[in-house]
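Collaboration report, partner site 2.

Our partner group contributed sequences for two proteins of shared interest, and the home lab folded both. The records are reproduced in the order in which they were received, starting with the first partner submission.
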Amino acid sequence: MTSNGLVTRRFARGDLVFRDGDQAQEAYRIVEGFVSIWRDNHGERVNVGTRGDGEIIGEMALLDDTVRSANVTAESDLVVEVITPDVLQSLLDGSPAVLAAILHQLLESLRTANDMLGEYQSRLRELEAARPVA
């Protein structure tokens, strides 16, 4: 348990923190270490991003009560604080700074998704232009 009363959890380098499609029961604030966030695209690992000290992972599915939308792997030994729905609500009610941090994280995720979409659209146009005309 940390000084702020949150339960901590540890993962070893290479551990899967959570999997795409898992039901979200909690989010995590990274205390120490870093993770990679990735999707599986027909057996190919597509990196979506990384997160490190002080950043939150798993917040999207927890906020809207859906399943996980990506895989997260510990890329170093990892220590996280566990944020349950009750803890999240308490933090949001009592701390505008926590709300600001979560909003910042969500906006960063949205920007990353938009950048990736733009790259995929550009690549698709290149492939369509290179396709032989029948």
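Second partner submission, folded after the first:
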Amino acid sequence: MDIHAYWPELVTLVNQGLKTNHYVSLATLNPDGTPHITPIGSLMLKENCQGYFWEEFPKNLPRNLKQNEAVCIMAVNGSKRFWLKSLITGSFKTWPGIRLYGTAGPKRKGTPEELARWRNRVRWAKPLKGYKLLWEQGQWVRDLYFTRFEPVLTGRMTQEKMNLFDRLIFF
């Protein structure tokens, strides 16, 4: 699957997941090979199949990425309206979720532009105590480089969307 050809749609799907659930799931591998999932609310996607997230609090995530930089992000549209409409019609108009596979770069200081973009996303919470505790001092980010994607499928409810996808990819 050519991730570059679908990148605009994938960005939309991930942003819907962030909007409706407030986080995406980021999977890495523990040193013993077991999976570890971290909720990430600060994922920002860019052009060219790249993104970054603010890395201030995770403990296992940096350790895991030090030994294996492979990552998988899963975003699911959690909108009740989206799900109700899909359940009523018996099909999803878009994929209900998406997985992005790739690698993570080293932890680095965020740029002023990246900081401004994140602060703009959470500006609604600025008057609240939690804003100061969680986001006021944030400065570290980690880049992500995505190489492939996989839609979340739900049997017959995503069959029509998958058939269209197959035609676009293989014909």
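Feedback sent to the partner group on the second submission included the following. The helical segments are 3-21, 60-67, 80-89, 112-121, 129-134, 159-170. The longest strand covers residues 97-109.
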